[in-house]
Amino acid sequence: MSAADEEKPPAAEAAAAADGGEEEAEDLEKLQAEIARMEAEAARIAEETKELEKDKPSSSATAASKEGGKGDATRKDGHSIYVGQVDYSATPEELLAHFESCGTVERVTIVCDKFTGRPKGFAYLEFQNDAAAENALKLDGSTFKDRQLKVTPKRGDT
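Structure (tokenized):
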């Protein structure tokens, strides 16, 4: 005990202890109320999860839709091209402008190094349809920013 504690009369110590006890009781009540609120929220989430699982299609339908998803990805690859020898300072907008005469471009992806963030010198372009992708293949050997582009169909394994 410190010298200040020794000088307090016993009645003052009891009052201080009672104040501390009241604060602890209030804190305990607040914590219990918070726990009750969290448990109610957990029960609500569990109920919503149950409802969502009821609405979910059967596992055989889910498997069929996954197979359909793979076919869709392959179809999208048919609309995509690889563009090599892309200048390192090229932007997606510039590539879009270069290939827009072929058809509607859905997406331009300039591949970058994951550690440095610098472009690797090639890109992928996804077109809206096969005809646009076929037209883009005709730009193989075209000049873009003083570099001769290599344009080929996108491989299916990338």
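The helical segments are 3-7, 10-55, 59-78, 92-99, 130-137. The chain is about 55% helix and 20% strand.
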